[in-house]
User: What shape does this take?
Amino acid sequence: MGLATYSELKTSVANYLNRDDLTSLIPDFISLTENRMNRDLRVRANMIRANTTTTSGTAFYDLPSDLIELRNITYNSGSQVYALAYLSPESGSREYGNIVSGAPKAYTNLGKNIELYPAPDGEYSIGINYYQQLTPLSNTNTTNNILQAFPDLYLYGSCLEGATYLNDSEQLQRFAGLYQKSLEDIKKAEDSARYSGTVMTMSVQGDPGSLVRRGA
Assistant: This one.
């Protein structure tokens, strides 16, 4: 049995739980698992970049509606890409409160918005790198990038929700362990992939100021 589609996942969940009377409930188990993964999973497969162009004199910009966690914000200067420094709102106001406008050097996160420091003095290309909510599976949306990359996590998480519903302590312990083991393996693989190609970082002086240049 494959695990490439929503239908195949539902069939596998029923098989792993050894139940044929949960057809109407298994979609709920999958939905609850997706909520769990939105909290637990921070991987390349659900990281995305949104681009925006600043407007002169405007410091505040909306964050994407499907954002679950902000990774960083970059600023393009010619062919170079720099990561803007993160500052708390208090530090941002203290450090840049007397600067009317200029090239963006830092930002703060204000819930659904970001504030750039200083307020841009023209059009700049800003990249918002963030972890995106996964696209829920359904009869019309039969797969997504997380199911394709980590079908075992979907399966064990859905079975864990099923065992919780059934109040089956033995199965609950089993699938909780399998889910956690899969999650830990995924995190280790992600860390290995992320840092295996890391290059040295360096501070950049002058314009664009205190921005930090990052490796690819």
